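Below: protein 1.
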Amino acid sequence: MQELESWVDPAYLKTVQDAFYLYLKEKTDYYHVEGKFIMGDGTSRWFLFSGKAVFDNQGNPTRAVGSIIDINDRKVAEEQLIAHEAMLRAVINNGLMHSILVDKDGNIVMYDEPINKIAEEFYESTMRPGMHLSKFVKQGDYPLFQSKIEEALANGPHKMEYCFTVDGEQYWYLLNFAPVGKTETTPADKVLVNTLEITQNKKAEQEVIKAKQLAEEVSRLKSNFLANMSHEIRTPLNGMIGLSNLLEKETELTKIRELVALQKQSNNRLLETLTSILNFARLESEFEGMPLNRVNVAEIVKRAYSSLKESAEVKHLTISLEVKEDVYCF
């Protein structure tokens, strides 16, 4: 035993000794323990120590037989697998994005705790390895997820946005599908799905779109308003100019008074137009609402006719008006 112990790597000597002496004490059917041997070149390799002791009538061991099997390749592969799994868990639990690891068929292999809490909150179900991903997506949407899993395995990482509604509230997530498990000899057989909530980003985008649409609508209304105001200002102004020209030539007092009355109507109309412009400016600045007044449309048409009649006559044009009844609107 002393010679055997001299071959064992000191880091594993106590483990080998404890296993052997425990076997002798409890007299089980056989003993076996894993440890490392020091090789001739100074390196160490994994071996499996196993065997059986022969006891005398007093229960004392007289000899032992056993075998030493080289298991170094298996243990190195196991250690690499454990290291890879630890690294994968570190990636999944990075805290920045929530993650689920699924196989090519959509079965859950691994997940982090935050995304499990999301599943409990929205789907009232706790995740477990082996459960299918379709249990945690909106009904009818899983074929899209399966296609993304297959695309990741075939072509590499890619992203998509996903939205679902709970109690009338929309929740948006950015999903990244990345293949996992690829080696030099085997293709990837799992997909890591990272999820990042972007609900607030989407709401901000929607607000920007609404603001843009509102600005475009205001700009359109302003252009229409200015075009209408140009017409509204020119109409009474032309009437005033035309009436002024007629007043210069007129000598009959009655006719002068009629022309002055018409000119006064044009003056009032121009004043109303300017008042409307000021009211619009106040409305745009959010100082006050645009006042709404009940107006007689027929009366407005009559006044417009009166202001244009004299100008038309000067130009030798015929203009007529027929209004059957008063019409009011706001």
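Below: protein 2.
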Amino acid sequence: MVDLHTHTTASDGTFSPSELVSYAIEKKLSALAITDHDTIAGLKEAFAAASGSNLELIPGIEFSTEYKGKDIHIVGLNIDYDNPFFVEKLERFIDSRDVRNEKMCHLLTEKGLPVTLDELKKRFPDSVITRAHFARYLLEQGYISQLETAFTKYIGDNGPCYVAREKINPVQAIRLILEAGGIPVLAHPILYKLPTKELEELVAYLSKNGLIGIEAIYSTYNRADEACIRQLAKKYNLHISGGSDFHGKNKPYIDLGVGRGNLKVPDEVWANLRQ
């Protein structure tokens, strides 16, 4: 089995890259893709940890993009993460996230929850700061009693301290992944809760613009969800991808390789994508 969608402490997971690699080896996965949100910061550590093992480590990323007001995620698999063009574009994207985070720190401080971006970066070194980091920091400081409160009361999409950040569109993400020699995959399309017609329009549009894969096997899918995505994949000549979307303790109900217990992504899924 393989897992082609996972996260580490480099974004919003709770396993370090080396810990995740060790866990994948323990789970006897044949291949693991690390696809942190908008960052490749954990990949070098992960490759060092995987050296000498039988685990095939796949360098990846998950881009947050916007399409018609919807948050759409594009996973890139097998990217050349040392590609200078790719690295330059990615650094600009990360800089835009820092601008957003500074504004959110200011709003939280105004609400009586003092926090600075420097403090967040000190607490979560080598991580791209996301709202999950804000939530954990607020919990550790005693400002809230549950992680969920951070989102429901402060930094959720409709919260008073939420600030939208600059996003690229999915076609830009696809092209950037292709430039880096990678395989662009539409992540968890069922989660966008699009009407059937709109979902098909999205898949058709992206397939015309270089999309190669689509996640038909995912932790929260039921059989009908998987069948729907497999049908779209067949219609638009896309390869199947799949993964748990493992985040460690930030999603304790999702385990590596098996999701909620019944996830199975066989080796041939990765073999077909790679080919």
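The radius of gyration is 18 Å.
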